[in-house]
Write a sequence for this structure.
């Protein structure tokens, strides 16, 4: 009756086949005795997972084998990692303990598997399980980076096989991936994995755009391939004449990076020219690497005119993750810009395999930027005061940034993320210098603390013993080190002020005849909407909570209990409903459900959009689009407050606000034509209209009320047909 029939014989055959493929992938790194270790790990995993199946119905063992294969083949890890990848779920999902793993496979394997095993037990309800897990995983980075590399392999396989999971789980895992794991892969130099993780995340969070770009790429595939052949033929010929051994080929850009370009520049797919990059990989000896790269650069720029603003030299100054390459953008034979990446085989291996290749070549490059970065992570982790959420946000911020190089007055080179300020530089030199910094001289000119630094600046810091970190510093520092040091200084200062506030409050409560006890303090903090009693004491000391407002509180306290606790009960009730699964899905627009929800202004969802609900602390439930710029952060960090939501069909008359950006060639009567289409043809109300015209280019931002996505798409289609309009795009936030 349509039941899933299991053919044990066929499955065993498939398991053996996959295991042999794994051994082939490990072959380059195998040493004596390694094969037996891998076999031992495989046999244990097979035995432990023998009765388990994945959501797809396949035997569970397929997953550890696949993770081990990715670790070996795509990251280039050795035997210890393969053993750990095969056993990574054994402690968490079966009866085997870490102690038994240590006895059989040694301390190192046990330590890595401990890092890979999720934390179980009680969490701070305001924090996120994911954030804590992520922090634990990073703690093991201090001992062994392989934990993170295997975790990335595990995440990549889960993302590749996610179609069998429930939609809300897909959204949550995909958001977490784009928010944390893709930037982490980028920072560890695993570009191929980073691109695939971003593409797979997009496939689940924004499926329509993903399919649209994939379809467009497919349509133009033959045309692109012909262009690449025309472009590289003359390059190959000259390289051969000059006796330079090199591979030259075209490489398509990822769907996610194309979408990013479309979004950043507000351009349609047709106007994204760099849909691919040309890569030149040179075979040469270590001592000739730099010379050969520049020689190839000179050959290419003799053939095609380069764009002088688009030269990126990571051969002379490699990126912090060890990435070395020479990038230039040249004008191709058909009048379009083409990115060319020039690197040697060693550089390419570091770019593709990231960390693993970095260790392989480490002898020749001992003081690598990657080692410095890991040292920074260790320092961040040692500042234990930070809560997991702040930590993850700060860490995330430092993952994706490109570096700039700054010089001290004595000429020492300091690497900082792009966009860093003079204050970031001060904290990078030393925490005390940062904390007492009052200004800086950049290239001998006096500048404020918030001055953004440029590549190659020489910076001298001016300090004063009277200076102390201030709250507004957090608005312009961007490095995690500066943020965490400022936060801990402010916390210390706040704690001192709060001590005084505590005494003041005690006296005030006595005069109001309110007993000073923990219960009452929590009630007062709740009443004034302070997250903790410390915040209450601090605000009392600062005079924000005075005797008058405390009197009002005392009067309220005497009123019926239900009025006083209305807010708290409302949120608790919602959480209980969610936990009881009564609210499996919020139906937006359904009058029967008495639920407070508002549409998030950051993305203005309208019927037809893919949406989810987010339970806020003060504003009930907010409805966001799954492709909202804030969605991945909310889902990755606060998964337990996410609710499934969908539109009901009862919304024919409801109007929803959304924004349209219209770009075109300015012409007399263009505004009239646009408003006619919106108001007369579609009978849609316009809420606001902002228009600028600059050197003949017309740009308009229009906020309109529509019923659903179908009506919006028709409107956009008709607006595009107006003569002179080049693009009509929907934008998320109200500008």
């Amino acid at each position: 009756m349509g039941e899933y029939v299991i053919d044990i014989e066929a499955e065993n055959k498939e398991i053996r086949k996959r295991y042999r493929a794994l051994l082939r992938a490990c072959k380059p790194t195998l040493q004596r005795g390694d094969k037996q270790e891998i076999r031992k790990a495989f046999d244990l995993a097979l035995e432990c997972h023998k009765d388990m199946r994945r959501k797809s119905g396949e035997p569970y063992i397929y997953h550890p084998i696949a993770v081990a294969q990715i670790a070996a083949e795509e990251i280039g890890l050795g035997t210890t990692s393969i053993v750990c990848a095969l056993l990574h779920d054994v402690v968490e999902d079966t009866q085997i303990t870490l102690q038994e793993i240590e006895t059989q496979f040694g301390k190192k394997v046990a330590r890595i598997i401990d890092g890979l095993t999720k934390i179980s037990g009680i969490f701070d309800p305001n924090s996120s399980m994911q954030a804590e897990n992520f922090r634990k995983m990073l703690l093991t980075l201090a001992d062994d980076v392989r934990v993170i590399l295997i975790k990335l392999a595990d995440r990549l396989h889960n993302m590749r096989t996610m179609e069998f999971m429930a939609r809300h789980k897909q959204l949550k895992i995909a958001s977490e991936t784009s928010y944390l794991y893709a930037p982490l892969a980028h920072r560890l130099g695993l570009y191929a994995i980073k691109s695939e993780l971003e593409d797979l995340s997009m496939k689940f969070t924004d499926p329509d755009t993903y399919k649209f770009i994939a379809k467009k790429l497919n349509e133009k595939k033959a045309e692109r391939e012909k262009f690449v052949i025309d472009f590289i033929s003359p390059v190959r010929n000259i390289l051969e004449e000059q006796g330079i051994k090199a591979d030259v080929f075209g490489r398509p850009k990822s769907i996610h990076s194309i979408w990013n370009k479309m979004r950043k520049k507000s351009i349609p797919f047709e106007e994204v020219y760099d849909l691919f990059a040309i890569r030149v990989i040179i075979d040469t000896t270590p001592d000739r690497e730099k010379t050969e790269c520049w020689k190839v650069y000179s050959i290419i720029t003799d053939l095609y005119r380069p764009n002088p603003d688009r030269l990126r030299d990571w051969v002379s100054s490699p990126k912090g993750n060890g990435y070395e390459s020479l990038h230039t953008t040249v004008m191709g034979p058909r009048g379009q810009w083409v990115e060319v990446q020039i690197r040697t085989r060693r550089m390419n291996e570091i770019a593709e395999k990231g960390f693993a290749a970095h260790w392989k070549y480490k002898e020749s490059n001992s003081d690598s930027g990657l080692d410095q970065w890991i040292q920074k992570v260790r320092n961040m982790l040692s500042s234990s005061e930070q809560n997991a959420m702040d930590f993850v946000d700060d860490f995330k911020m430092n993952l994706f940034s490109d570096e700039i190089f700054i010089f001290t007055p004595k000429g020492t080179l300091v690497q900082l993320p792009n966009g860093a300020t003079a204050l970031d530089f001060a904290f990078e030199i030393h925490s005390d210098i940062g904390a007492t910094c009052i200004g800086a001289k950049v290239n001998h000119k006096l500048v404020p603390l918030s001055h953004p630094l440029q590549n190659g600046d020489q910076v001298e810091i001016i300090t004063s013993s009277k200076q102390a970190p201030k709250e507004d510093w957090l608005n312009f520092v961007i490095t995690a080190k500066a943020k965490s040091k400022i936060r801990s200084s402010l916390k210390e200062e706040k704690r001192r002020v709060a001590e005084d506030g505590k005494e003041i409050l005690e006296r005030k409560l006595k005069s109001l005849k309110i007993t000073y006890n923990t219960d009452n303090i929590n009630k007062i903090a709740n009443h004034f909407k302070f997250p903790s009693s410390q915040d209450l004491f601090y605000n009392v000391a600062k005079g924000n909570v005075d005797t008058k407002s405390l009197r009002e509180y005392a009067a309220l306290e005497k009123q019926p209990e239900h009025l006083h606790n209305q807010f708290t009960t409302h949120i608790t009730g919602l959480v209980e409903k969610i936990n009881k699964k009564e609210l499996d899905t919020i139906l937006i627009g359904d009058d029967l459900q008495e639920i407070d929800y508002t549409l998030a202004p950051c993305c203005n969802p309208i019927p037809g959009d893919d949406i989810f609900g987010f339970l806020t602390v003060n504003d009930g439930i907010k409805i966001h689009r799954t492709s909202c710029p804030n969605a991945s952060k909310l889902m990755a960090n606060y998964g337990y407050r996410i609710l499934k939501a969908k539109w009901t069909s009862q919304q024919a008359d409801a109007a929803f606000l959304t924004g349209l950006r219209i770009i075109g060639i300015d012409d007399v009567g263009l505004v009239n034509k646009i408003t006619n289409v919106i108001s007369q043809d579609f009978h849609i109300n316009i809420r606001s209209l902002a228009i600028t015209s600059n050197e003949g280019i017309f740009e308009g931002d229009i906020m309109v009320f529509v019923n659903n996505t179908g009506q919006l798409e028709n409107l956009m289609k008709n607006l595009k047909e107006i003569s002179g309009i080049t693009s009509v795009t929907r934008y998320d936030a109200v500008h």
